[in-house]
């Protein structure tokens, strides 16, 4: 788990997830999931 304050957080998450996703793709997917659970 990477805290919000972790440097290169999304790059680290993308590496952990695998599948060739970029940091930006992983962040965008995360934001969509957060939106889904809020509404």
TrEMBL record:
Transmembrane segments: none annotated. One of its GO terms (biological process) is green leaf volatile biosynthetic process. Residues 8-33 form the Myb-like domain. The keyword Mitochondrion does not apply. Keywords: Nucleus, Transcription, Transcription regulation. GO terms for molecular function: DNA-binding transcription factor activity; transcription cis-regulatory region binding. Gene3D superfamilies: Homeodomain-like. It comes from the Eukaryota. It holds the Pfam family Myb_DNA-binding. The keyword Transcription applies. This is RADIALIS-like protein.
């Amino acid at each position: 788990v990477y805290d919000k304050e972790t440097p290169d957080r999304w790059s680290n998450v993308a590496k952990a997830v695998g599948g060739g996703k970029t940091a930006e793709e992983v962040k965008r997917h995360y934001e969509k999931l957060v939106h889904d659970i809020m509404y």
